[in-house]
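pipeline/complex-builder :: batch 7 item 3
reading input block
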Amino acid sequence: MTKVLDIPKVNAKNMTEKEFFYGHKACAGCGGSIAVRLALKVLGERTYSALPAGCMSAVGFIYPQMAFNSNAIITTFPGSASMAAGIAAGAKALGQKDFKTVVFAGDGGTADIGFQALSGMIDRNDDVLYICYDNEAYMNTGIQKSGLTPYGTKTTTTPAGQNIPGTVTHKKNLFEIIAAHDIAYAATASIGYPQDFINKVNKAKHVKGATFIHVYASCPTGWGTPTETSVEIAKDAVDAGLIFLAEYEDGEYKLNRNPKEFKSVEEYLKKQGRFKHMSDADIQCVIENRDKKWERMRKNWL
Amino acid sequence: MVSGKLVKRLTNDQLTNDQIIEKMSRPKHTEYKTPTHIDDYPTGPQYEAGFLPEKNAGWRTFKPVVNHDECIYCLRCYLLCPDGTIMKDNGKIKIDMDYCKGCGVCAHECPKDAIEMVKE
């Protein structure tokens, strides 16, 4: 594996001027499009993108408007990882060198529908970078609950009412499930910390084999937040401890950010329309779950 | 990677080499011509990369206005623009108003409040 010190650093000052995701039709302030745009800028021109059904494929390929300025293809919903593995194998067979294959899938396309293909891709160790932009529900089809929707979220399939506080299950622990495959490199990130995300994509670019990045990306339409606060909300989620920044490499977990004190969870939740209905008991349930998780992470990952 | 068709179309317009490179680095608005012959249609469900016949400017209610005296060129807005419309222009930032949707992320995230959202 390439040593971390050998990888050239990428930041806003020296990153390429080229735009590879431009003129798309995503909602104003879309967090997912920030993640896709930054990742493509880090990966460069010689990139093959594969996108399953989801927001980014719906907004990027509106015939004849082609927002992707490099090679990109829409894949089947459950087969994005296997299709990307095929692209990587095909390009290799043609004798191409110095290229990267990347998948941009939403949380539903990763944790629920595309999961078996992803698991197989990691098992075969295909040279693919899989980026999951997590906006915590099926946003493209109109906000339905997915496996990564957190406790208390109001969605159209889990409406909040007298009997249930919206979603009653907690977020699936996707990062640890992926790491359990003993993958070469996996990481979690948030668009609220863009430089951290860029560094992780850059690291994954230089790893040969299957890599995975789970990036937390806000959705103003589905979350009921003003468009200008979409980056702030993604940062608040990390500061409140509901999202953690970690890496898995060489069989070791590493916690990148270990804040001494968390910001108020209630303040983070009350900013968003999808959590407005939550009672104090529900918020307490979220905090308890967070503390339990952090206790385990601090014990084992530091 | 650029398809051969795009290079052909660009060279047909008799652009200089620099202009071709500039055109490919940031896709620009391109007129869509309805095909008149069967050969003009693409051979499958595919199209040229970075072909933009439509603009997004009509989505906007507020437009960002940059105060260059306050701006410290930290490039946080450049990193966080969801549409990538902010570009570097000799130590100053410039906004492509054809594709800015007016979301206001740049103005909200600016550490010096150098960007103001003004109603159009």
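note: The two ends of chain A are 23 Å apart (CA to CA).
queue -> next item
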